Records
---
Amino acid sequence: VSIAALAEALRAGEVSPREAVESYLDRIGELDGTVNAYISVRAEEALADADALARRRGERGPLWGVPIAVKDVIDVAGTVTTAGSKVLDGAAPAERDACCVERLRRAGAIVLGKLNTHEFAYGAMTTSPRYGPAHNPWALDRICGGSSGGSGAAAAAGLAAGTLGTDTAGSIRIPACFTGVTGLRPTTGRVSNRGVLPVAWTFDTVGPISHSAEDCALVLETIAGVDPEDPSTADVPVPPFRARLGDGIRGLRVGVVRDLLERGVDQRVAAVAREALDVLRALGAELLDVTVPWLDELGTIQQAMQFPEATQAHMRWLRTHLPDYGEDVRARLLTGLFLAAPVYVLGQRARRVAAGAFADVFRAVDLLAAPTMPVLPPRIGEETVELNGVRAPYRLTLIRFNSAWSVCGLPAMSVPCGFVAGLPVGLALAGRRFDELAVLRTAHAFQQATDWHEQRPPLTGS
Amino acid sequence: MRTAKPLRYIRRTVAAVPSIEELRARAAEQGIHPTDQDLMRVRGFLEVLLPALLELERLVPGETVPAGMFVPSEEP
């Protein structure tokens, strides 16, 4: 059930908040032993919250009674934030909700639990050595991607009406793509990061993962907006995203990033993305081939800043808990120790050049489109993936497809657009800064014309 | 591509990755004590990253000032 449909049923009194929560708790009990999307389920608290909502009089928010789950790097008062890591074993429960959780609750949402993540959201696998891997609901032996893998898995398997993830270099878009759901990385600065464990402050952003663009719009307009306690948020108006979804895309200029359809991409994935672009054209969009300058360098630009920032965020634990990190995250965090200060400044200088290049591209088009991920999800435990008959390191295949949008803080979305070998494929749509509306409108128009977002994995209980 | 050969040369000769001993000493200066196995993995990252950074430095025009951070009006 989509967030929009469930919210409507709750408002109409067809379902009570308690019934909604119980229904998801039953499904979690039935399926999560197999999927492992959750790190903790707030069963008693969520039921109590549901009863409190039902008792309270007054205006009901747009998400009244809707059960939502959040990635376990986001604070929920009274619950330990584990970040999927042994490093935080024994940590005290959060004293306060993260800003995004505060806003969800203010809109009436009920927090169902905390979702599996790549350790400290610093990787694209979600194979936590502490809590185990999240399994892809479409093929349980494969990863969900990451780092918000639990958020993608929970949304795909119907273990929450919608979820929140975080995205630094693809961590919402990758799992949304691999699990066949819709995920939006908002513009950096659109959503507060207060109460969210950082990966790299320059790029981090919180965003929704759910079944549809409409659901993402509904959640985004709830959590977006300036936060006086987070200096990274921007004081720009938040449009009524959902109300304007139906504006259509006739005449919208969509820049097709030809290089991402032709190089470093599984040609079966590219073929599915091309068919999706044909749908956009049939809906009235004007498709134009574009070249994104610096495409091969954008990953390096991001890493020049991301490595040092992530390492700085972890210094206290690197000194005291080094052996408690998983191997891969430990190596990434240690790498940041050995990059000299000029590297960081080089990254910021190159970022300005890249931003200028994107500004030029966006004079000619309103939106950019490409495959979200160039490959299909690897099997759990494998670090390489098949790319047109050759084994390639998974980590390196995804950088060009994700850092491009993160470096300049653009809003970017993954929309389900088909399948290859029974595994979902996503179309990436990226817009100008703070123009989530163009991204959401396009995704919504696509979803009104197709039913890929309505496909569900064939799961049975363990 | 005309630049391919010089770039390969730069990658081989200039972007030298520090030895395990050097990395261990530099980590210790910061109060961190990784294992040799950790540092082998670090070297794997640096072997890819350092040449790419050298190339990036070559490409960025000299007059470019850094982008801002947390100042939305200045941020890209």
---
Amino acid sequence: VIAALAIALAGCGGGTSAPDASSDGGGAMIVWALEAPGEDATVSSLEVVAPAMVSIDGLEGDLLVRLEVIEAGADVSAPWLVPTDVVDGGFLARSRVVTAPLAPIAIEGPPGTRVRMNIAARAVPPDADIAHSLTWTDPAVADDRSIVGPARVLRAFSDDDHGGVLFDRFLRRFGTTPHSERPALVELADAIADEQGADPATWDLDALPLRVTAVHNRIDLRSDAHCGELRVSFTVTDSAFPFVHFLFLFAQGRDGDVSELGIRHCEESAFVWARLATATDFVDRARAILDETLVRDRFLLAESLERTVGTWEWRQWTPEESAEPGLPHVLENPPLFQTIDVAAANVPGPLRDDLLAWIEANAGAIEARTIAIPSRFAPRSARATEGVLRPVLDLSGLATPRADALRTALDRIGCPGCHERSPTFVQTSPDRVFSDFYMDELEARRAALDAFREATTAPRPFGALSD
Amino acid sequence: MLRSVFLAHAARGALRPQRRSGSLVWLLPLALALVPLSRVAAVEGARAVASPFGGNGHNVSFDGRLFIARTGPGWMAQLLRPERITRDEGGFPNVSDAFTEPLLIQLPDNEENALAICEPEPMPFRCSAAGDRDGGGDFACYDVWVVDSNAVVSDNRMRRRRLFLQVRSPSTRDAAIERFEWRSGLEYLTPGLRGIEPTVTRDGRLLVYQGTRENDGMIDTLVYSYNASPCSLDGWSAPQDITRMHEDARLRGTYRLADSPLRAADGTVYTDRIRGAYPWIFPDGEAINFTAAPMPCRGIEDPPGCGPRRNALSVLGYPTNWALANIDGDVNPSREDTVRLFFSSPGPRTFTEIPATRGLDVWPFFGSNTSNYTELVFDDGLDGRYVGVWHMNELVTPAGELDLSRTPDTSGFFNTGRLVGGASLPAANNGRVGKAVELDGRTGRIEVPHAASLNPVNQLTVEMLVRPSSPPDCDANNNYRFLLGKGELDGAYSLVFEDDGSFQARVRAGGEVRSLFSGRAIPVGTFSHVAFVYDAASGTLAFFIDGAETNRMVFGPATLDGNREALRIGGPGDAAECPDGHGAFHGAIDELEISNVARYGDFAPSLDEDAGVDPVDGGGRPSGRDGGAQPGRDGGVRRDGSAGSDGGSTTPPAESDSCAAAGTGGVAAPLIALVTLFVRRRRS
């Protein structure tokens, strides 16, 4: 036996560019020796030359193993190895539970073909739970302003390392947006200025009338760009503004979430969240996640949900470059993601004709909830009035017989559609109580987080997971 | 005299001693005679018309069909048969044939009066002739608990008894009570709750009544008790002021009334008690209506039933932005002459026949003591695009008194107006809708402090009903009158009543004052609806009289500048009776509404009586009901919330060729010609 013992590197990481060990091959059995993994993954790389057999040593019992193979023309196989992402140059077998000892990996193909393998093995994470793995309302985290207070979050969404000026501008912008003016938010800015002075750059942001209602793990929203979102939701505590909520969204992602082949699997992030379910040092781990995530480069957008007067109004706010003094970026209110302006679309005219044609052409993808709604059909805010029935998208004239199903799908893929399914329009109350709809959704997200242990790659449709 | 003493206590804010609420049973014929039948459309308090349902304390089942009311003989049960509701010539519901004959179900052996109908499960259920549950049965059966208290000779302890009531031909125009039986005796709730006029939510868990948190038998404040077990005999929580509901974790998130601190009409957050009587809680705990102020006595029983809190029927809850809203309309006909007590609703969407009034959220209500039917429209608070709505009625203070020196803003922004000088609110309704402010043409005005909400940026609509009492033209000088202005005439926006009876609107936008004449005069002595609309994107300023566009100019696009000046309504300050310019308005102003959206010409239904209700042959849902509050694509909205008919255009309606810079024109030109003065001698 010609053995080339791989030097296993324990700990986090992955996607290493240089192998930890290599073999000249020759069809012999190669032993890839790994250190026994614990909660942290054992990560190692091995480069071999086909043909070869690779025996993994050092693993015992049930483990979660991810293996990436970078090859050009070789066949790499093992009974326990199930490729999930096959790309040019190799494949990734996402983490799944296997029982060691593992059958050897066979590497076949033209002699001399070089194959590189990256393995991550770890103890199987516990079942995720809602209170730690999906949302944080624990006062030890949510009420600790050094962990996730308004000053911290607003500093992370601004360019000036403070956030007061941008937050003030954000509130005042509600009063000037052409599609809808919400002057109560301007009055909130005025009230803060009365309390803390006219210069928002000097405001004590932790003294703002804001309370964290929850931190939300939205790893289910992972995409090609990031590993989902971490959201911090706030409610305004000034009794003059009783129904004002803000959410600040930051991109998630950790070292090792993207493989050497460029496949974003997000497993490292997922398993960190899952392990919080049984962690005895939950607060410290939560702080670490927030330390990593609440940074300017990760800020994605803000959302507002307010019923300052009469109607609920829901908006998104994205950073845009600005020429305003002291504000390289400001928050502006773009068309809503995955939302149709129903009132406008119901009016006969070019917009309606355009929408109906788009629906006809994309009926299958709409019903499967896999298509993005073009922004030309979207409103800049969604409004809802308690006690008043929502307008229904009029699909009369549509040739397809599945108009009802399409209407339902279109309604359910956008954020407003979900919010309006809660009697109070709000999913997280100022008391940190979740709506029934949100609880259903959290259960679905919990299952989705657990599914990271099962090498799941099924594309997530737009809209609620619980539907 | 005794009642006068009680009134004096109430006026000073003291708790009223226990007092029977049944003293008005015999007021019914009188009340009927006093209910005005004037044509009133929407805006919070709709018309009130006569109803055959009458009595004193009453309540309604949650299916909206079973009414139980105290009349002279005792508790009477009646069925509402909406299938028999027709429409009058104005399209308003005619309920004269809607009720079955009253059936006596309980003698007043224990001073039975005000009651709550508590349903441990949704009622009625289908049943057989024998009264057994039978999904295919021909009958409907109610098996409910009736909660009441003896407000006369006992210590107001809440009690319950079980009522079984069977209905034949249910949910038809021939529905009738087949039989009833009491299936239990009187049982007193525990722990004991002392109060009167109970009302309970659909789920049977939240009981609201007139009592005190001290549970000492006193009344005059609104309190609640909660029980996780619906309609139960035991387990009721200690009474607490409804002002604390938002702090009660059992209630928050379940009952919308508990979603927010409750506010007085001026925006003050209630921190202690809410004075109130004759409460009725909306079925799911969304809101509450009650009488919020005492009815003063001119003498003994003058007016009949005076003394207690039987004035200012008001609503408080989600449709009023959790603030007390004193209803402006026929159900509050006078603050001095008629009392009002119990009102309840079968619900806004229970029946297709009622309500008929269009609006975002409209609730039908029956009054028992007043034997009337009305429809309350909550668009003012729910629309979300009004920055000020002044119905021009009295403000109810946090202490539960009428404040004649202030008029509330029900938009939700609490831009309360203060009446100054010769501005007054008459005792009896004098407006096109409810009450209107009377201005003496010299010192009378209303002042509203500056607020950010009063500075719209992109769009502005100012509309009001005005009734000049005299022609402004009083001598050879320019006698124009300052009707409204945020600042002076060159301020953020203003409206002048020219001495030829027309108007001039101004807005400051892009650093310049933009002005538009109405191109049409209005008559003296009657209400006219006047409005001007500015759209910054197009720079269009348009004027409307009685819903018809009378003039329009297109300036360059420019947003409104705004300012930090106060808003003044009706006058600039003290002015001469016949001023040489810049005078004060002499007449009445009603229903002043300022919006941060352009409401192009679509002022119905709130101010257009004829368009305020569904067609007589309606029967379907009011057209505005489904409209929601969705904005039109151009940001302009119609009153019913639907998008404008311009199909998503980002511009206002096309400019009429005949609209000259300062001339008359537009589609209404022939009509305008009838009233326009052809020679304009003077302009403000």
